[in-house]
Structure formats: C-alpha cells, structure tokens
Amino acid sequence: MSSVFDAAAAPGETADGAVPADACGPAAEDLARAFRFLGKRWTAMILGHLSHGATGFRDLSRGIGGISDSVLSARLADLTDGGLIARSVSEGPPVTVTYTLTERGQALMPALGLIAAWARDHLDC
C-alpha cells in the first residue's frame, strides 16, 4: 500500500517496496510545514476561488462569505509573501486590485483537489 510518504522516501525503499520508518521523518516534517502555512482558516478557500481566475478583493470577500476584511487582507498578504498569489494594481480611476495564482499556487491545486475529494468522501460534517 502506498502512502503520502512514498514519493519523499522512494530513494530509501527496500527491494520489496517498503519504506523504512526513519525515512518518513523528513516527509512528515514537510507536511507539518505545509499545513502550518496552508492550514490557516480561509487559506484553502481563497486559493480555491483564485483557481477560477483573477479576482478582486470585494469579489473574494463576497464569494467566501463570513470572512472579515481584515482577515482576508492578512491571508492575501501571507499568500502573496509565500509566492502563491500575485497582487496586481490597476491605476484607475477607480484603482482596482486583483489577485491571481502564481505558478507556485497553480502547482498546489491538484493537491488541494485531492484533499477536497477526501473530505467529501470521508468527513461526515
């Protein structure tokens, strides 16, 4: 049976395909690091909305619902600093700000899709 750790530990596999327990440590640390960043409330929802194309602040706020402007602003800043989204300012009038996924953000979409599918199939809430 394969696991999420297989790709990270493939070079250390034994002849029968088993992954030694000590090879899982680095992969587990990578997952913990990813979820510290991506596990903040609203982050995945913001990325999901941006996966459909460039979106402005107001449209994100309305589309997500329940997120305060200050939290949305903070999450957008985190995602911009992390290189997952790009912020573009168009001089007006009126001045408009749009957000888009970067290549780095787009590379994350298949993984988020798998997590969403898992949640749909395995979580009762």
From TrEMBL:
Pfam families to which the protein is assigned, alphabetical: HxlR
Residue ranges crossing the lipid bilayer per the database entry: none
One function term, GO molecular function aspect: DNA binding
Annotated HTH hxlR-type domain residues: 24-125
InterPro entries: ArsR-like_HTH, HTH_HxlR, WH-like_DNA-bd_sf, WH_DNA-bd_sf
Domain of life from the UniProt record: Bacteria
PROSITE patterns the record matches: HTH_HXLR (PS51118)
Keywords: DNA-binding, Transcription, Transcription regulation
Classification via Gene3D superfamilies: Winged helix-like DNA-binding domain superfamily/Winged helix DNA-binding domain
SUPFAM superfamilies to which the protein is assigned, alphabetical: Winged helix' DNA-binding domain
Record-given protein name: Helix-turn-helix transcriptional regulator
